[in-house]
Amino acid sequence: MQFSESWLRSFCNPPLTTAELCHALTMAGLEVEDARPAAPPFSGIIVGEIKSITKHPNADKLNVCEVDVGEAALKQIVCGAPNVRVGMKIPAAQIGAILPPGEDGKTFTIGKAKMRGVESFGMLCSARELGISADASGLMDLGDAVRVGEDVRSVLHLDDTIIEVKLTPNKADCLSVFGVAREVSAITGAPLSAPQIPKIPAAQNRVLPVKIEAHDLCGRFSGRTIMGVNAKAATPDWMVRRLESAGQRSISALVDVSNYVMIELGRPTHVFDLDKVHGGLVVRWAKAGETLKLLNGNTATLDEKVGVICDDNGVESLAGIMGGDSTSVSLETTSNVYVEAAFWWPEAIQGRSRRFNFSTDAGHRFERGVDYATTVEHLEIISKIIIDICGGQVGPIDDHIANLPERKPVKMRVSRAQKVIGLPITADEMQAIFTRLGLSYTCGADSITVTPPSYRFDIEIEEDLIEEIARIYGFERIPALPPKAAAVMRTRPEAARSQHQLRAQLAAQDYHEIITYSFVEAEWEHDFAGNADPIKLLNPIASQMGVMRSSLLGGLISILRYNLSHKAARVRLFEVGKVFARDASVADGALAVAQIAQPSRIAALAYGTATPEQWGDSQQAVDFFDVKADLQALIAPLVATFAANATHAAMHPGRCASVIIEGKVVGVIGELHPKWLQKYDLPHAPVMFEIDLDCVQKLPLSAPQVPHKLPVVRRDLAFIVDASLASDALLSTLSSADKQVVREVSLFDVYQGKNLPDGKKSLAFQVLMQDFSATLTDEIADKAIAQLISAAANVHGATLRS
Asked: Chunked in runs of 10, what are the mean pLDDT values of the chain (802 residues)?
């Protein structure tokens, strides 16, 4: 929301400087994002009038102009503008005038010049040369009303300030200059000048029939006809300047008036070409398959959840969003118009614009709530402006009230407000604040009950009123005091570790944490989670964020692609967050949604080289075993086993393993599938893992152990097994075969090739044995080794390699 300071001060003019005014608005919750001059600095440019024009003797495209600048003698100025004419009043830069900075940031000083042999004592300027518009088609025409010799900055009000306010979604009442002025009055106590409501008697009796069929769409519909307007009338300069200060370009008088009333009063209206309307208007929900060509040239396909205004020939406009092309006003043919001002229920407008991939100022206001009590008054104002500019005869106002909001009183406890704000603000002070805000109220013993006005859709509960008290009283007046609470020593469970510890562990392993949206593309769910039926959002914030994620891998891949596009060669990422899946066993609760499971997971991705580049280390690409080691370090002291040949939608089918902790599959680890490498334009496959967070947060309780003084005996065993046998399977068998003296079994060699039968491989294990009560004898050691060999043969058909 942006506007000029002078426009705001025309309604409320507090004794504050521009900086003080902006600060006051910001501290009251209306954050001023920018306050910039309406025009760049320049000086020495005044209003001049062209008295005569002669062709330049040495240049076909130049003219020699005699210009009256309010002095005794006329100034001779050479000009090449195509629109120069006698009697035209234009900005004239005198010798010594300073023009605004150009693209190089430097100003330009006008001096006496000789152009093709003819002296020029100044310069005639376009709007672009003054820095107030991009129009460089010709000289800026200042109109006949200005006086020769006046400073152009004063004439065009260029010493004004453009204020840009960032509004929160609840402050729909401030989506207008008058709404902001109403806030300024409440904040500063300065008087508010409300707009005068004219009473325009009907000069003709034409009434356009209107029928409201959908009362949950439209609560009130007011309109009137205006016959015999001049659609070609020029928009007044003052209106054009105010529209430009609000970021709106002038289009035509009828459109400009509608935009002006919307920005000044917060009332979106629509002007129909009355002669293009067939029969009457009907307000209803659209029917599936109906189409409408909009004012922006797009053709929208509609359904039953979109509100429309129709005539006998079909749909004419999207309710509360944008008009249709078939009934739009035009400069050539429009002479009779129908002006409409309606109240559309916010719930009926919310999210509709996004379906058609555009947004409008009208829809932005209606979906937040527009005053339903002033449609007739605002219709009178817009009618007055139209007939003042375009002429015409107004008809009677036709006002249809179907279903208006009920403004329920809101009770606020004075003691509760004092406790929340933390200050002993008296009830009288609170009443004074409500009075300044224009809120009607009644008082009780320890309460104030407020009935919200028709333009305040943000006041529904007690906390809303407490917020109003705090912001108008002044956040700056609330002292910054430390909280007072009893210090409680909280124990940390010894058998659990926090998410922060896991994050710190991965960060220490050279991974960077990312935080991505839980809303993702449906395509990601298919590609990286194999989820054909993801949980869809009813009102997504963007079309590419339409479903809830059931895996963290998609976010990791997207951030990897972003980093690669910025020339990163080595990327290591991780994320901790919730995923979402359908689960009929989940009950509704304070932090749960019925039938939706929300487990937390931790996922990581490594791409590029295993180690940072350095002269003493060969640059080897990160592989499965590097990331497996990182995962093992992350979950230690828990021990994971890995089951090869796992299947996962995102993973390479031959380079993927299930992660198993205490006999339970808790996640997956592997390389990205080759088809996703091609689809997502990745040069090499990243290695990733994703595991359940709950399982790795558990820790076994530590138990003290006395170091044993007796020696350890080592034996090495090499088995010949089928090449398809996973080494983990044999290792698990050997580790559980003898629990008496065998302390550790570990794999140290895998061989497949020469001197081995086809389809076989050799697995060599180190066996460490120790007896805690006495020195281990050869007899006991041999017996334990025999048990290992027997277990390997019986379970896996392994034979001892000679």
From this structure: 94 96 95 91 92 91 93 91 92 92 82 90 90 80 88 88 94 96 96 94 95 96 97 90 90 95 96 95 95 90 94 94 93 94 95 87 95 96 96 96 94 95 94 95 95 95 96 90 80 86 95 95 93 90 90 96 94 96 90 92 95 84 94 92 88 92 93 94 95 90 79 92 88 86 92 88 93 87 92 92 82
**If you count DSSP H runs as helices and E runs as strands, how many of each does the chain have, helices first?**
21, 41
C-alpha to C-alpha distances, 134 to 130, 142, 250, 407, 555, nearest whole angstrom: 10, 16, 13, 47, 42
Q: Quick check: 606 and 629 in contact, CB under 8 A?
A: no
Backbone angles phi, psi at 114, to 5 degrees: -120, 115
Which of 322, 328, 326 is CA-nearest to residue 307? 322
Helix 727-737 and helix 778-796, axial crossing angle in degrees, nearest 10: 140
Contact status, residue 535 vs residue 580, Cβ threshold 8 Å? yes
* In contact, 206 and 225? CB cutoff 8 Å: yes
Q: Name the helix (H) or strand (E) containing 239.
A: helix 237-245
List the structure tokens of 161: 């300030």
143, 238, 135, 110: CA torsion to nearest 10: 60
User: What's the token pair of residue 363?
Assistant: 């829809």
Question: Cα(521)–Cα(548) distance, rounded to whole angstroms?
Answer: 8
Neighbour count for residue 800 (Cβ, 10 Å):
13
Look up the pTM and report it.
Answer: 0.68
Give 749: exposed, middle or buried? Use CB within 10 Å, 0-12, 13-18, 19+: exposed
Half-sphere exposure of 515 (CA within 13 A, CB side): 1
- Of 156, 157, 152, 145, the C-alpha closest to 122 is 152
Q: HSE on the CB side for 778, CA within 13 Å?
A: 0
